[in-house]
Every structure is written in structure tokens, then in C-alpha cells.
Design a protein that fits this description.
Helix content: 10-25%
Number of strands: 12
Order of helices and strands: EEHEEEEHEEHEEEE
Radius of gyration: 20 Å
Structural class: mainly beta
Shape: globular
Mean pLDDT: 90
Distance between the termini: 41 Å
Length: 326
């Protein structure tokens, strides 16, 4: 029997997703010593591969407050440890992104099939608590929702703050803003977008962007200084875990990280410590998207780079990223 329950805290209401047995139809919980851990349903975090599900359970603390549990593997196929010693901060970004899909489905009644649109996110990590240990990292995440909106009776948008802790130490803090829309509204919005893809372009050298394999490089060179083309490989098993009709937000976050590394002279590994991203429009799959980097004034916390993504002459997103040396 699993500790990954969907039971609400005493005195709270709870929606049971379609297809799940009612509470009183389940076997009684096993003694604590026998309880096992599993992941949450992959459909609730919008993942096709079970291996990409990072969340393991949750508890409702109040109408807008939750505690979520998660686990990071010692090594991930794409978010590989930096220098072999530190968990990739973008693993924290993906974890908090999954929280923002999971809780609306599990607690706010959003049906499976609704689309979530990432509007903005901010992440800050403490490298001192990102070290890879002898076992996977078990995490506790405090989540608070703000500005919750509904359309009719359906949850439609919110902002949420998350604090990731490991053994009581704060590993990362993040804030995400999203909207979600029905499948019908999404089809009207997107039309025929996503049916065509640009040809796969040649990657930058992996060592220039902090990668080991060219298959994980998401930038291609251009003839313009400080500018790269987004490299979209829809066969990538993590960034394109399932078919989508636009560039996923995590692909754009990775592209910004790689652009920042490419633009920063370094002889030792760089680790992102803070990310601010705002998404204005979808990045389409069938038109070249270019990322331009601009160095900003460094702070005591590290180098700062602004990355702007443009497509067809229109800014689609921008990210400010702070990096430091390990």
C-alpha cells in the first residue's frame, strides 16, 4: 500500500478524479512500516514516461496550501548532475512545473486534457544543498496558491509559490503563473499550428553549452554575434516526452541556460542560481527562433545574462539568468 495518497487533510473537501474508486472502497492503509512509495499518476503531471514523474504524493493543509513530496534520482538522463556532484537546478524547475499541473488536477477539479500555459516563472536555488548524495534526494515542497481564478465553475488560472526542502534545508524557491483552457478552446486558439517542423539544424559543440552529447544541445550557430538558433528535435525523449504543437517551456528554459553558458567565458562548470522567465507567445515549431544574449552587470551572486527569444520579428519570451562557478 502506498504513502502516495490523495486523501485530503481532516475537515477539507476533495474531488476524486474520474475513474478512481471512492474513498470507502479502498483497502485500509497498511501499517507505517509496510507502506511503500510510488509516483503520482503521470497524466496529472502531463508526462507520458513514468520515469519522468518526480512527484510522489501530497497533503492539503488549507484551501490554498499544500505539501507535496518528490524525489530526484541520483542521475537523470537529461538533467544530468553538474560536474557529477550537484543536481541540475532545472530539475527543480521541472519539479515545480509538475506541481502546477498536478494540484489543479488533483485538488481544483481541472479535467485531464485541459492545456496549461506557462506565463512566467522565477526560480532561485542554493547550490550548497544541491549535492548528489548516496541515495536519491527525497524532497518536501510547501506550495501556496494565489490569485486563483475560475471561468464559470472551472479553475482557469493561478500563481503559486513553492519552497523545496531537503532534510529541512531550503534547496530552491520558485513562483509560477499559468492559465489553463479546455481542449475545445485550445483547438480554436491553435488551429493548424504544429503540423510542420523546421529541419533539424546542426548543434553547437556540446562542451560550449555544458553538455556531453550533441543530442542534448538545443542551440545551433548563426552568423550574428551573441545569437543562436533554437534547435528543435521533436524526437528528444525528455524535452518532447509526448507530441506537442509548440516548443515546450522546459525546452525554452534549457535553451536560455545553454545560451547563457555559451555567452560566458568559463573554464570551470557553471551552475544557474536564479532564473526569471516571461513567456509572451507560443514558439512555433515550423519557423526559426533566434536567441540573443546580452550581458548585464554582475552581482555578488554571479554573472547575469538576458536571453531574448524572437520569431518572425516578434519577441516570444525573455529570460534573465544568474550563473556562478562551482
Amino acid at each position: 500500500m502506498s504513502t502516495n495518497t490523495f486523501h485530503p487533510a481532516p475537515g477539507t473537501s476533495h474531488r476524486i478524479p474520474a475513474g478512481r474508486p471512492p474513498q470507502d472502497a479502498r483497502p485500509a492503509p497498511a501499517p507505517a512500516a509496510m507502506r511503500l512509495t510510488c509516483t503520482v499518476p503521470k497524466e496529472f503531471v502531463h508526462r507520458a514516461a513514468l520515469a519522468e514523474v518526480l512527484l510522489t504524493g501530497h497533503t492539503r493543509l488549507a484551501d490554498n496550501r499544500f505539501q507535496v513530496t518528490a524525489q530526484w534520482p541520483r542521475s537523470h538522463s537529461f538533467y544530468t548532475p553538474i560536474a557529477g556532484t550537484h543536481h541540475d537546478p532545472l530539475l527543480a524547475t521541472e519539479t515545480i512545473r509538475q506541481v502546477g499541473a498536478f494540484l489543479p488536477h488533483a485538488e481544483f477539479g481541472v479535467p485531464i486534457g485541459h492545456q496549461f500555459l506557462m506565463r512566467a516563472f522565477h526560480l532561485q536555488v542554493d547550490p550548497a544543498h544541491l549535492h548528489v548524495g548516496a541515495t536519491p534526494a527525497d524532497l518536501d515542497i510547501d506550495v501556496t496558491f494565489h490569485d486563483i481564478r475560475t471561468r464559470g465553475t472551472t479553475h482557469s488560472a493561478a500563481r503559486y509559490d513553492a519552497v523545496i526542502r531537503r532534510h529541512g534545508d531550503t534547496v530552491a524557491t520558485g513562483s509560477f503563473t499559468y492559465t489553463c483552457i479546455t481542449p475545445q478552446a485550445y483547438r480554436r486558439l491553435r488551429g493548424n499550428h504544429g503540423h510542420l517542423h523546421t529541419p533539424l539544424t546542426a548543434p553547437l559543440p556540446p562542451q560550449n553549452v555544458g553538455r556531453l552529447s550533441p543530442t542534448d544541445v538545443v542551440l545551433s550557430p548563426t552568423t550574428t554575434p551573441d545569437t543562436w538558433q533554437l534547435r528543435i528535435d521533436t524526437r528528444h525523449p525528455v524535452l518532447f516526452d509526448h507530441p506537442v504543437d509548440h516548443a515546450p517551456g522546459m525546452l525554452l528554459a534549457e535553451a536560455a541556460r545553454q545560451a547563457a553558458i555559451a555567452a560566458t567565458p568559463h573554464t570551470t562548470p557553471l551552475i544557474p542560481t536564479e532564473i526569471h522567465s516571461t513567456y509572451h507567445h507560443y514558439v512555433e515549431l515550423d519557423t526559426p527562433c533566434h536567441l540573443h544574449t546580452q550581458r548585464l552587470t554582475p552581482t555578488p551572486h554571479g554573472n547575469r545574462i538576458k536571453i531574448t527569444g524572437a520569431q518572425d520579428g516578434k519577441e516570444k519570451f525573455h529570460t534573465t539568468l544568474t550563473t556562478t562557478h562551482l
